[in-house]
Amino acid sequence: MISNSSESPVAQDMEFKGTQDAFEAIYRQHAEAAYKLALQLTGNCALAEDSFQEAMFKIWRAAPLLRPGNARGWISRIVTRECIRTLKARRAERNRINCVQAFCRRNTTCVPNSEGLEHNRRLSIVADVLTRLPATEQDLLKLHFQSGLSQRKISAVVALPQQTVSIRLKRIIHALRREFGVTNC
Fold first, then answer.
1. Is residue 162's pLDDT more than 60?
2. Which one in 47, 125, 166, 183 has a CA-CA gap of 20 to 30 Å to 20?
3. DSSP states along 149-181
């Protein structure tokens, strides 16, 4: 957690104004504890740095909304949310990679000596096909498979009815299956 030291009235007043000086005061007072919290939650220096940087950016953008005296809890929540988002994104990326690798293993017919080359070739084909999709279709796939969002949550994000999201995802997946010659999954 962020340290329990009480904030000075000057820092509180500056935080309330939402000026650049206010952000600098917030940063000086809470950055070390916020980074330690991120490191504790992620267990990885690189992920902690990414989460901390994203949290500080959000804090900088929202500094004018900060009320006096609540910086510690506010910063803790932002850092925690960013750590969770970072960990979820990392897990989703690993799952996506594992799915692509499993697809390539299931659909490869090669001799053992060329197995690595065939595997890389298939991964390259999958990546190429995905990048050729329209941006809206890529976004739906990313939200569903990479971010792990349900169709209901995706519909809220993209402002479309849930049924529309469901139908579009189904069509995209069927088109990808046809592209790769997969008949049953």
1. yes
2. 47
3. --HHHHHHHHT--HHHHHHHHHHHHHHHHHHHT
**What are the domain boundaries of the chain?**
9-88, 134-180
Pick the CATH number of 9-88 from 3.30.930.10, 2.40.50.140, 1.10.1740.10, 2.40.50.840: 1.10.1740.10
Could you say which DSSP state residue 65 is in?
G
CA distances from 100 to 106, 134, 173 (A): 10, 20, 13
Helix (H) or strand (E) holding 58: helix 45-62
Is the entire prediction scored with pTM above 0.90? no
What token pair was written down for 5? 């030291």
Residue given tokens 């809470």 in the structure block: 30
Length of the chain: 185
Q: Taking residues 90-117, report their average pLDDT.
A: 62
CA distance to 41, 51, 70, 79, 139, per residue, from 12 (Å):
27, 25, 9, 20, 41
pLDDT beyond 50 at 112: no
- DSSP 8-class letter at 185: -
Rounding to the nearest 10 degrees, give the CA dihedral for residues 104, 107, 110, 113: 30
* pLDDT tens-digit readout, 72-87: 888 889 999 999 998 8
Q: Is the dihedral of CA 154, 61, 64, 22 positive or negative?
A: positive
